[in-house]
């Protein structure tokens, strides 16, 4: 998102993560183990204290600042300062931050035996920025308005999961609301799903479950001044999110919110900036920029080399990971990719060392042999179905090609994005071209501009046989990572399709359903890992690498916390005093 957001957008695809500039769901993290809910400082020395202004310097504007329209609670964590949700991510460093915890709700939800009914109870004492009480009816209304066509852009899961969701058009057209969301009293909300969904506690972290008081709803204009349920309220929103200023919500009570520290008095988000300018300002760390961070701008290879040579700057670089995989996709409806031996040959021929170097080197990319990212929360289980070492195995590839009827090799076309800032860049395509040449495979490169590239690879009618792409999950679980790519029932014949292989294997579909019934998230993770291995052995993709992200923060920033959930600096934990 998970746009992986992003990017399963589904987050990771339609707004793919940039290797140099990096999209909003990319990662960044501290290189120490301080921070988190313990309140210990990382980054600048000294105990964090309340007060001051934290500046956020970003490339992408914080637009569509409406809980209905935000795809996830991403956006560099800025939305979660204003919009509280039923559940939220654990605000701790690394793997501990990939756990889901209660937010507005008292727990992670109480499922029925088959996980088709989920019941939540709200905490006592929850209030909006105007002092009025937050009720379960407000959460129901907030979800319902996310179905309105004029407020599109949010995640599709509630539409897919709620009974009657597929045909519902929102409260502006249907005053009756969704019968599948019940509010028996002011603190209870019950969801009725059309199929088992053990991941519902993760879904409940998305901004669509943020409360919206019906009387304050101004439709598409609500984003200008959404009513805050979090520690900060919007006092300025200019240029469609290019300048967003937040100040304290005095009715927010930390007694009801164990996750957000809310140290600064003010958050000043300035977006639409050039990435080089952002990194230069953070590097210089002068004036207000000493108390600045970025949540969407990565250090590129050249910048990283310069920073690494400066001990003071290097101490202000965080390393982090977001669940994202860059891979080669096949369309078996295009020959010769219908032949598993050809796909296996390509899997053996790929030189992941050269691919990693093309992606910026080992500091910015880690070789991947599994589709699931290496974080435990996804259910990662280490395997290599086609072990070829670090530099590929062209001899094994030639052997398989001979068995496939191509003793003299073959010629194929690789489609990629012409934008050098994307994981599908010409440099990576060239690295694959050179590696496959050693196995007797001639690769012609078809580079397309970003829009044309996306239109081509995500349409089943025009999808090429061999192309570069990537995927990131909307939350740290195997479900939103594997199901959209390999569940045959998610093949989209008209519109954006992400199951590029168009895999529709009954045993895979059945296992997805069986895992979705599990409400034990650890048990589900193990099953997702096993399913990943089963699918991987069919050579339906070639995992290439998982991106690594390096980001600067100002020298006055304390309590730097970055988790494996979002991979970005968590503003709710940062302090500037």
Give short descriptive properties of this protein.
single chain, 577 residues, alpha+beta, Dipeptide-binding Protein, domain 3, 5-stranded mixed beta sheet, 4-stranded antiparallel beta sheet, 15 helices, globular, disordered N terminus
What would a concise description of this structure say?
The protein has 577 residues and is an alpha+beta fold. The chain has 15 helices and 19 strands.
Question: Your description of this structure?
Answer:
The chain is of the alpha+beta class and 577 residues long. The chain has a domain at 324-547: Dipeptide-binding Protein, Domain 3 (Dipeptide-binding Protein, domain 3, Roll), CATH 3.10.105.10. It has 15 helices and 19 strands. A hairpin with a 5-residue loop joins β4 (110-111) and β5 (117-121). α8 (340-349) runs antiparallel to α10. The two termini are 32 Å apart. Residues 1-42 have low confidence and may be disordered.
